[in-house]
Amino acid sequence: MENGLLVYPGGEFRRHTIEEARSLASVHITQGISWYAAAFLLINAALGAGILHYPFCYAEAGGIVVATAVQIVMLLLLSSTMIVLASAADLEGDNTYHDVLRTTCGVMAQKAAALSVLLACYGVSVTFMVIIGDQYDRLFLSLHGSRFCDSFHLRREFTIMATSVLCILPLCFFKKLDFLKYASTLGVFVMFYPVLLTALAFSGVSTLVDRETSLTDLLDSAIKVIPTVCFAYQTHEVVIPIYANLGRRSLGNMSLATALCMLTLFAVYSTTGVLGYLTFGAAVRPDIMQNFDANSPWVLLGMAALIVKMIATYPLLVVCGGKILEDMSPWASTDSRRIFLNICWFFSTLVAATTISNLADIIEYIGALACANIFVFPGCCLLGASLQRERFKVKRPIPVFLFGLVLVLIGLALALLVTLHKVFSEDHSVETLLCIPRS
């Protein structure tokens, strides 16, 4: 992928953008695509680690009704902001997320977007390592019993470290990782495997019922669902480059692609969440794969495929994050600096992954960041366009301004609410480790 240079009055800031980060990790975009091909690319960009967490999300929400209702409301809001981005791209025919932000809001907004991508890439990198440890824990629990972690070489700290150093670290030294694009694209089908296992595990009979709750409980449950939904549905970073590559670029075709994408994701996530919750109930794990018996060859195959997917995708995030760090650095880019940054990225995420064992915690913080990204940046685009109504020939600047302001406020409010809820939450009942070593 070629990286162009954009020259601004304040200097140069290379275009290593959000859509490049996500396209490297999951989307291979070609010219002249149809709207249904665009929908597949959007699905490809969104479908990932969030699907493993969805059944736990339903359990945390206290039932199917609350979780599904919140998901539907958020889905409608997310769809609208995707169309907002496409509309903003049409103002001057922009083809990238960064170009749209620069056009409507200026360089500072562009750099803020780069920083948000950096944090998101870092958080997802930690998530991948945690998922690797989860698969090993489930495997060893099935093969060696509940005290498997008493053996040092079976502890998650060792398995994460060994797998990461042997399989991931060597890939972090490559400057170009185009050969991994296809493995990552194929990896989207790997993420359907937990859906299949959950469907097969469901017996069709469940004694679970949605419990009666007060309004306060409903609000608390809704807050628990929001970060997972934002994390799982976030495709906004690739909307504009995919829109730019439509064979017939129009908001109508983009609306069709968005609708098909969201409906497909809703069907996949809801199926996994509902069946996983009905099957395992309150015992469901933050990573649904940990609920299955690894003695089954089909489960073992799924775990192995997940580990391979995490290994293949992690280096792409390192490259994207490293490029953003280089662009934000005042020093010239060199191979030695690139390698140094990649090594620092790798070992810092390794330490974080062996320290934070709860996938739910990581997804909640990334979800809080996603809340801001999904609403704040599209809202800023509308605000910028309305304030420059003569340049962009905005016919109804006041409604555009108000809608943009509402989106920004929603994004900031959700991000703050989710973060505060996580920080001050007193719910520590979920024991995430399958085995705790004896002290």
Distance between the termini: 50 Å
Largest sheet: 2 strands, antiparallel
Structural class: mainly alpha
In the CATH scheme, what's the topology name? Amino acid/polyamine transporter I
Q: How large, in whole angstroms, is the Cα Rg? A: 22 Å
Number of strands: 2
Poorly predicted spans = 1-28
How many individual helices? 17
Q: How would you write the strand order of the largest sheet?
A: 1-2
Q: What is the percent of helical residues?
A: over 70%
Instruction: Output the helix-strand order.
Output: EEHHHHHHHHHHHHHHHHH
Tell me what the CATH architecture is. Up-down Bundle
Mean pLDDT equals 82
CATH superfamily: Amino acid/polyamine transporter I
Number of domains: 1
Give the amount of beta strand, in percent: under 5%
| Coarse shape | globular
CATH C-level class: Mainly Alpha
Protein name: Sodium-coupled neutral amino acid transporter 7
Domain Amino acid transporter transmembrane: 32-415
Organism: Galendromus occidentalis
Keywords: Membrane, Transmembrane, Transmembrane helix
Mind sketching the topology for me?
Layout: E1 5-8, E2 11-14, H1 18-26, H2 35-46, H3 50-61, H4 64-89, H5 97-105, H6 107-144, H7 156-168, H8 181-190, H9 193-201, H10 215-233, H11 236-244, H12 251-280, H13 297-328, H14 335-355, H15 359-387, H16 389-392, H17 397-424
Antiparallel strand pairs: 1-2
Helix pairs in contact: 1-11, 1-13, 2-11, 2-12, 3-4, 3-10, 3-12, 4-10, 4-11, 4-12, 4-15, 5-6, 5-15, 6-7, 6-13, 6-14, 6-15, 7-14, 8-13, 9-12, 10-15, 10-17, 13-14, 15-17
